[in-house]
Amino acid sequence: MTRHRAGSGSSPAARPGAPATVGGPPIDPALLETVRQTVLAESGPVTDLRVATALRGSGRLLGAAGSLAAMDRISAELNGLGPLQPLALDPRVTDIFVNAPDSVWLDRGAGPERVRAGFESEAAVRALAVRLIAVGGRRLDDSSPCVDVRIAPGYRVHAVLPPISCTGTLLSIRIRRRTVFTLAEWREAGSVHPDMARVLERIMAARLSFLISGATGAGKTTLLSTLLGLCPASERLVLIEDAAELDPDHPHVLTLEARHANTEGTGVVDLAELVRQALRMTPGRVIVGECRGPEVRELLTALNTGHSGGGGTIHANSARDVPARLAALGALAGLTPQAVALQAASALDVVIHVERSAAGRRVAEIGVVAATAGGMPADGLQVVPAVSAPPPGTGEPALVRGPGWPTLAARLGIAAPPQGPASS
Asked: What is the DSSP string of 177-240?
């Protein structure tokens, strides 16, 4: 979800499928290289003054507009995202993808859109990828061809080199926007049904433990930040993330970020260790930004030891698929499916599923986590649908109640009404 939804404006840039353009008029590559070498010949931070001085020293007469454009481009080359920097300035852009020098795409909330301009060569793409990864304290080369880092000011960069990539250097940039959406803004954007929003508010108020499921880019992290903003100010939130992306509107937030191995292969601090450390910090709620490995064992353990109201996000195709996903992650931690089912059935209360379509991101379903009588699914664990949003475009005004609604209503401490499952 974005604050300015694609397609909501009248300008071509706001319409889904309208190609974007990188930057303004083209800059002479020879001039860029000359100024770049002059600036980098001196140590110290790259400032606008140094770039302007080097530009004047080049002897090129560009005029006021041309000089400003050249300064912006060169500063972006040395400090920012290079030729991609103008794209990142659009507040609607959440992702930028480089598939080849002439294949650059962005996402403004309505799916990938191709950008008209690109890079000069494959070498230019690789040089940018290597520089961005180095800024994040990692190394991108033949011995380490796939790297993911977080760099200031809020970019998460993933790069893949050939021959792992068959088409050349691949670059994926996720942009963390500081804007945090309220639940009211989710409703106004049509991303959450009003009755579903009231159920979400009750889930947080009742301190139910939860997982938010969905595909990559569905809005799991955005929704999690929104829900954490509903927590009382008296609660102490400890957030555990592989790359810090959560930014809830809450006065008492502590963020722990995992650390990858250095060039010597040491210094790793993984999510599982951070969960253990978080439990020593008197947390009001323990939140794992994304469960995708052995840390699921520590999270389930924490939620089973009196730390209610916690949760995180998990990749899954639907709420029903979460038990199988938990079983797979539990196997990485050495847990049997039966052990995962026993832990999860008592640790988790609900699964909130978000999905993404051509119409945008939306909260599609809430299911309750319960044990099964038999051995399936996932050997004793299931997610039973409680409430589902009507499909977009159907015109249906009410939520669809599922077989899990009485259980969810009981956990929320409300009676199941004859109509409108979110009312009290």
From this structure: -S----HHHHHHTTSS-HHHHHHHHHHHHTT--EEEEE-TTSSHHHHHHHHHTTS-TTS-EEEE
Question: Which tokens sit at 236?
Answer: 């102490």
Is the Cβ–Cβ distance between 6 and 92 less than 8 Å?
yes
Tell me what the mean pLDDT of segment 240-255 comes to.
89
With a cut of 90, say whether residue 170 has pLDDT above it: yes
- Please give the torsion angle defined by the CA atoms of residues 411, 412, 418 and 421, in that order, rounded to the nearest 10 degrees: -110
CA–CA distance, 98 with 111 (Å, rounded to integer): 15
Alpha helices (runs of H) in 106-166, residue ranges in sequence order? 122-135
Determine if the peptide bond prior to 29 is cis (ω within 30°).
Answer: no
CATH 3.30.450.370 corresponds to the domain 90-177? yes
Residues in CB range of 218: below 8 A, 6 or more apart: 354, 355, 356, 361
Q: Which residue has the tokens 């010949």?
A: 41
Q: Which tens digits make up the pLDDT trace of 343-379?
A: 999 899 999 999 987 777 899 999 999 987 654 444 5
Distances (CA, A) of 98 to 18, 104, 107, 243: 18, 5, 12, 21
As a whole number, the mean pLDDT across the chain is 81
The CATH topology of domain 183-412 is: Rossmann fold (3.40.50)
Distance CA 137, CA 131 (A): 10
Rounded average pLDDT over 214-223? 89
The 10 Å Cβ neighbour count of residue 164 is: 10
How far is it, in rounded angstroms, from Cα 73 to Cα 137?
Answer: 24
Is the pLDDT assigned to residue 13 strictly greater than 50? no
Whether pLDDT at 116 is above 50: yes
- pTM for this prediction: 0.72
* Per-residue pLDDT at 279 exceeds 70: yes
